[in-house]
Amino acid sequence: MAGLVTNLRSLDSANFKTSKRADGVNDSMKFKLGLQHRYEPARLAIAHSLAIPDQAPLLSNDDADDLGKVVMGKTLFGDDELPLWVAMIVEKAGLVHPTVEEIQEQVRRHWHRGILLLQSEWENCERENPEGVYERFILFLAQRAGLPAYGQSTTTTGDDGQTIPRSRSAIPILVRLGDPGTDEKTGLPANWLLNGKGSPHVALMGGTGSGKTRLARNILVQIRVQSKVPCIIFDFKGDLASNPAFVSEVGATIVASPANPVPLDVLHIPDSSPTEVTNGAIRFRDSFVLIPKSRRVQADELRDAARAAFQKRRPDKPIEISTVRDELLALYAATSRKGNTLNATFNEMTQWKLFDPRMAPADFFGRSWIIEVHNAPETAQRLIVFLVLDALYAYFKSLPDSAMDGQGHRALRLVLVVDEARRVLSYGQPSLISLVRESRSKGMSVFLISQSPEDFDKEEDNFLDQIGLTLCFKANGTSPRVLKACLGQTVDLAGLPDGVAVTRLPGLPGVTRIKAWE
């Protein structure tokens, strides 16, 4: 039976170790950083992992079965600092009556996660600056810890007026493009700086089973680990919401429509001024006319009905889709008009309670959500996604520009992910296009995941120009216009092996083949 920790002496003499794989990385990092003892990079790794908001995950079966060398507790943590280390580890794991074995297990996990993360960050810095990798790495760690540059404050002001650590406002977010995520030609790590001077938006293309969704999950988790940023994910197939590990890693809440309403005041406007009322009415009209199978709808009447509904909005009574429907019916009655496609669409959409307006946009978009719509009818899917996009665009447009650090890294506020993006792109939904074009300065990154380059062929060239990273896996679609816009040349995507993608990385000539997955 595990022995309870009743005093710290039991931990002084306890044996601690991590996986053999992580132990080898620990030795490598000791050499790279010019350290003398094994415990020095181990302490750095454990602290690095403890700073991540999520608990350290279990080791894989292979790593758990193959452990590294032993180091005693008093050596690993030091006599004076041992109580502080134990307190942080116990608090992080939520252990009420910790045992020696439980603390050993937590150290094993944190050491493993932290040292592998440090290795990845070293490789990222080496890619950025091979000559000054050590200095770049130390600077990176200092920025992650929130230490200020010379003459710089350690804090900044957040969007809500609150003081927050500068390290959370603008830090470099460098992601590895898969696992191993290497350049097939050189074998070097394939990394991408998401929030540098270029666009932070991503297009992932590839057929079923090619690896695009797996890569998207991997990159999203890396972003979450580095920045704790929330994400809004539209899941049209249900495979993202059905992955418990991914849901936990991005800290998301699942909303399965139409069974569960999206808890967002989707028709929110900040006030009832004529400008806000008109803007809200036009956004609603422009999205709602895309919902019916028949596009022959009376757009002017819809706009007028939406404007009348917005004018009646009160702070304590948000308007709903049914409110706009009722105003449309009143307009028809006043003009002696009969119901038409719009009326039929409202009747269909109000069969379900698709939205519950209990959260303002600032609250809703401050959290991570997976909005799963694969069980909803197509018309309901479009309405849910389009109106959430409208609310997101209106909210982000109202925000000040996101903070930047001295190196041009812009603070990230939100990641928007649209899986099966063709279902939105094919309709030319205005808010999504506007978010791609305008949200960079506001701190948003948009991920568009699609089956084929041809899914982007309906958009304008300047829309495609806003994409900062395009990764193309094996696919049958070979739209020359899209491939040339994204990659600078046409590529035979049908001939790519599974797990291999082509892209054009900043600073590198031509197209790079990336080994994303083994």
Describe it for me?
- This protein starts with 8 loop residues before the first helix and ends with a strand.
- It has 21 helices and 16 strands.
- The model is unreliable at 149-168 (pLDDT under 50).
- The strands form 5 sheets. A 7-stranded parallel beta sheet has the order 10-11-9-12-13-8-14. Strands 6-16-15 form a 3-stranded antiparallel beta sheet, with no helix packed on it. Strands 1-2 form a two-stranded antiparallel sheet.
- With 518 residues, it is of the alpha/beta class.
- The longest helix is centred in the first third of the chain and has 29 residues, at 100-128.
- The protein folds into 3 domains: 9-144; 174-263 and 360-515, P-loop containing nucleotide triphosphate hydrolases (Rossmann fold, 3-Layer(aba) Sandwich), CATH 3.40.50.300; 274-349, no CATH class.
- Strand 3 (155-157) and strand 4 (163-165) form a beta hairpin.
- It is 42% helix and 12% strand.
Task: Give a quick rundown of the structure.
The protein has helices at 9-12, 20-32, 39-50, 61-65, 73-77, 82-93, 100-128, 133-144, 166-169, 212-227, 244-249, 274-288, 299-311, 321-335, 341-349, 361-364, 378-397, 422-425, 430-438, 461-464, 480-487, and strands at 15-16, 71-72, 155-157, 163-165, 174-176, 182-183, 191-193, 202-205, 231-235, 252-256, 368-372, 414-418, 444-450, 469-472, 500-503, 512-515. The chain is an alpha/beta fold and 518 residues long.
